[in-house]
Amino acid sequence: MIKILVADDEDYERALLAEILEKRFAHEAEVRMAENGRLAVDEAALWAADVVLMDIEMPGINGIDAARQILDQRPDCKMIFVTAYSLFTYAHEAVKLGACDYILKPVDPEDVERAVRRAAAQAEAERQLKAMAADRELLEGADGCDKTAVLMGKVKKYLRHNYMLPDISLDSVSAILQINASYFSSLFKRTFGVNFLDYLTELRMEAARELLRDPLRSMAEVAGMVGYESANYFTRAFKKNVGMTPTDFRRSIAREQEGGAP
């Protein structure tokens, strides 16, 4: 069962999140609670939490700092931030930490379930990659082609779940797999027909196009949520791959919604 820790200094919010999780993951997860950042750090380490829902604004150690300490001890733990403040600075910090998502208060049960399932999928994808890497005969022997296909299928799943991490790269994935980066690069291109960076960029552009449909999201926020720490770099990448700037894309969407010409 997946272990989910809820950290929030507000009794009502903490209990509400725990109730949502217990209902939506009744036979899939065990849920525990922590009432401040310090207890969250200790509980996550001692209990070996898989996913942490962390309130950002807490007295003493705030959620961002608590998350850093948890990830120092448990790098594989998945962080989801919960906040009453719709500020890009929080989203940006969350992405830098490798957080899976952030949820605005008052929480929507659908948002909570979606975020946790996504986090669990990421954790599972990473476990599968590491398990595949542990099999040193994966790319050897008579069944090498079939085994390679299985491996690259896992890589594809991993990228689809983790494209938003700013530090994801060919080198980082090949390191997880314990495969030479040059060999992995050629293997990737032979399997998917494009190089690693182009594939990753297309995943990010696909997500960006969807996020840009929400007019309330700032350009910097969208950039951070698809793995770009610089909004300017995101804009250049978007224009190069989509053929128009993010702003022009938003305008075209607005015209379509109004019934005008695309």
Can you give a write-up of this model?
With 262 residues, this protein is α/β, with parallel strands linked by helices. The protein folds into two domains: 2-120, Response regulator (Rossmann fold); 136-262, Orthogonal Bundle (Arc Repressor Mutant, subunit A), CATH 1.10.10.60. 60% of the residues lie in helices and 10% in strands. It is built from twelve helices and five strands. The chain has helices spanning 11-24, 37-47, 63-73, 88-96, 109-134, 144-162, 170-177, 181-192, 196-211, 219-225, 231-242, 246-257, and strands at residues 2-7, 29-34, 51-55, 78-83, 101-104. A five-stranded parallel β-sheet has the order 2-1-3-4-5, with helices on both faces. Helix 9 packs across helix 11 (231-242). It is globular and about 50 Å long. It starts with a strand and ends in a 5-residue tail after the last helix. The mean pLDDT is 87.
What would the keywords be for this entry?
2 domains, Arc Repressor Mutant, subunit A, 5-stranded parallel beta sheet, single chain, globular, 262 residues, Rossmann fold, alpha/beta
The ordered string of helix (H) and strand (E) elements is EHEHEHEHEHHHHHHHH
Shape: globular
Instruction: Compute the number of strand runs.
Output: 5
User: Do you know the CATH architecture of the largest domain?
Assistant: Orthogonal Bundle
Task: Describe the structure concisely.
By secondary structure, the chain is of the alpha/beta class. It contains twelve helices and five strands. Helix 2 (37-47) packs parallel to helix 3, helix 4 (88-96) runs parallel beside helix 10 (219-225) and helix 10 packs across helix 11.
